[in-house]
């Protein structure tokens, strides 16, 4: 394992990464490339590609009947970096030293992940890169000001998923096109697939729909949208469940909508795998962009 230089502050390192992304963009050979208008990308010291998501306002939620993703409400999200791909089994094992996935594939998304597994990975990845971990292992509260990796908030996840769009999906309202962008029930009936093997969204993020459900940092509350702050909402203070987003390989198309909300006990066990999530849960990481770095962009 290559050692990272010490003495570099988290804000300085992230500012350098964001600055670097203005002049270079890296990718995975053999995969469809994001559009020319996609935000720039950086590759972190541990080898993970991240996209520099610009801050902005968006319309969060939907007016779908009998769904918990209503009502539509206006939200502002500050700039952040987000993993271009779902965390792979290969990288999870490199960072944590184990692979809990049922369907073993180095390039596949790590799955059957409990929320705490994801938070522990974020802390371990932060330490690997010489950053201060965001999560307190005693309480699992997240202090994003520390500058390390963390899970996206629900608002950040939907903002990145929509990529500037206001339709049901980032490609429009026609679910028939979902097969081009996602592994889900109509084209994938047996297991998750290698990350990045469908088309990306307009901001160059892969598998935002389908493949595996993705943990968010937020606790889940059905009526939270009615009390959510307008700027950088962080979810309720506590709950019995955490937010899941994006759908998985055996989800219906309606469960892969940009606005669709799901939730799960953060410490679910094998006994819960018969529920809608079927244990097919993974994640991707984000990092907050310090104000100085965001200004430089």
Question: Would you mind describing this structure in some detail?
Answer:
By secondary structure, the chain is an alpha+beta fold. Helices cover 16% and strands 14% of the residues. The chain has helices at 10-21, 89-96, 115-128, 154-162, 291-296; strands at 41-43, 49-53, 56-60, 73-77, 80-83, 213-219, 242-245, 261-264, 281-282, 286-288. Strands 1-2-5-10 form a four-stranded antiparallel beta sheet, with helices on one face. The chain has a four-stranded mixed beta sheet with strand order 8-7-6-9, covered by helices on one side. A hairpin with a 5-residue loop joins strand 1 (41-43) and strand 2 (49-53). The relative contact order is 0.19.
Strand and helix layout:
Elements: H1 10-21, E1 41-43, E2 49-53, E3 56-60, E4 73-77, E5 80-83, H2 89-96, H3 115-128, H4 154-162, E6 213-219, E7 242-245, E8 261-264, E9 281-282, E10 286-288, H5 291-296
Parallel strand pairs: 6-9
Antiparallel strand pairs: 1-2, 2-5, 3-4, 5-10, 6-7, 7-8
């Amino acid at each position: 394992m290559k050692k990272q230089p010490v003495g570099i502050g988290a804000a300085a390192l992230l500012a350098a990464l964001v600055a670097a992304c203005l002049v270079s963009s890296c990718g995975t050979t053999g995969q469809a490339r994001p559009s020319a208008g996609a935000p720039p990308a950086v590759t972190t010291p541990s080898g993970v590609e991240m996209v520099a998501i610009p801050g902005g306002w968006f319309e969060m939620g939907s007016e779908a009947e009998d769904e918990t993703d209503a009502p539509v409400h206006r939200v502002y999200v500050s700039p952040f970096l987000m993993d271009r791909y779902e965390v792979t089994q290969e990288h999870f094992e490199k960072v944590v030293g184990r692979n809990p996935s049922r369907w073993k594939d180095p390039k596949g998304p790590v799955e059957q992940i409990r929320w705490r597994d994801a938070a522990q990975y974020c802390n371990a990845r932060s330490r690997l890169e010489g950053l201060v971990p965001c999560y307190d292992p005693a309480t699992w509260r997240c202090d994003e000001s520390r500058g390390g990796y963390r899970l996206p908030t629900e608002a950040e996840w939907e903002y990145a998923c929509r990529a500037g769009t206001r339709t049901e999906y980032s490609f429009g309202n026609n679910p028939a096109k979902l097969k081009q962008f996602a592994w889900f029930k109509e084209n994938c009936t047996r297991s998750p697939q290698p990350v990045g093997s469908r088309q990306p969204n307009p901001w160059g993020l892969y598998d935002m729909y389908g493949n595996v459900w993705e943990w968010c940092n937020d606790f889940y509350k059905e009526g939270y949208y009615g009390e959510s702050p307008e700027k950088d909402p962080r979810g309720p203070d506590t709950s019995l469940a955490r937010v899941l987003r994006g759908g998985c390989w055996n989800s219906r198309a309606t469960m892969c909508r940009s606005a669709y909300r799901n939730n799960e006990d953060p410490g679910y066990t094998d006994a819960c795998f018969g529920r809608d999530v079927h244990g097919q849960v993974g994640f991707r990481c984000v990092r907050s962009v310090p104000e100085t770095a965001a200004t430089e962009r």
